[in-house]
Amino acid sequence: MVGAMLLQTDDDCACHETQIGLLSRAAGVRSNQRCYSKGERIYARDEPAHHVYAVVQGAVRATHYLSDGRRHLSAFHLPGEIFGLYTREVRSLEAEAVVKTTTLAVRRDDLERAASSDPKLAWRLCNIVADDLRSAQDHLMLLGRKSASERVAAFLLEMDRRLATDGIMSLPMCGMDIADYLGLSNETVSRCLTKLQELRIIDLTKGRTVTFLDRAGLREIDTS
Questions:
Q1: pTM value?
Q2: Who's near 196: CB < 8 A, 6+ residues apart?
Q3: Strand partners of residue 111
Q4: Element containing residue 215 per DSSP (H, E)
């Protein structure tokens, strides 16, 4: 699932800083930053949803563990993106730091009070929830209808939109994270990435830095 992005307006672009600023301005002094180590839990499933978060640095994964220990990842939240904005009173997923991560947190009741007197803020928060819903629907379509190579291509294009600079991006997540997000095995993801390198569509280093050599070719695989 793509992290929630604010809709663009004439006077306030939908950029990462705007999302973090949205929380800071709405909650004032009650906002706070915290650092998490790699793999550390930010919040647990079924715990009260008292806070809303934004990623300042690092990356966060939204995780659900099945009773047999299997793991499903429903979303990655990247720098500047808001997460944890639940309409329910309790969490339905866990949130964990993918790498060393810094978040900004505000109390949900502070945000709700601010939104009750600021229609523009309320509208932006609705946009975030709507974007999360659309992203969840897109993810279900990816899992239910696309082949392994199409899933990997779609993932790279998604990350390209959110991380790439001048055709190069560094993936914060490991291969197992990607596999659990795409509903594939780690070995299958590795084979798909190797194939894309052989086709000269991407170049991938051991540090998980991806260079896009043929975005058109990647889009063709995604839509095949």
A1: 0.84
A2: 152, 153, 156, 202, 204, 218, 221
A3: none
A4: helix 215-222
Residues in the chain: 224
pLDDT in tens, 199-224: 999 999 887 899 999 999 999 998 86
Q: How far is CA 84 from the centre of its chain?
A: 11
Taking CB atoms within 8 Å and a gap of at least 24, the contacts of 107-112 are 107/27, 107/30, 107/50, 107/51, 107/52, 108/49, 108/50, 108/51, 108/52, 109/50, 110/26, 110/27, 110/28, 110/30, 111/23, 111/26, 111/27, 111/52
* 3-state secondary structure (DSSP) of residue 9: coil
Q: What pLDDT digit, counting tens, does each position of 26-55 carry? A: 655 466 889 999 999 999 999 999 999 999
State which H helix or E strand residue 112 sits in: helix 108-116
User: How many C-beta neighbours within 10 Å does residue 28 have?
Assistant: 10
Q: Which tokens hold the place of 198? A: 């052989």
Interaxial angle between packed helices 148-163 and 175-182, expressed in degrees from 0 to 180 and rounded to the nearest 10:
120
Residue 209 is inside which H or E element, if any?
strand 209-212
* Cα–Cα dist 71/177, whole Å: 9
Identify which of 80, 108, 86, 96 has the alpha carbon closest to the alpha carbon of residue 16: 80
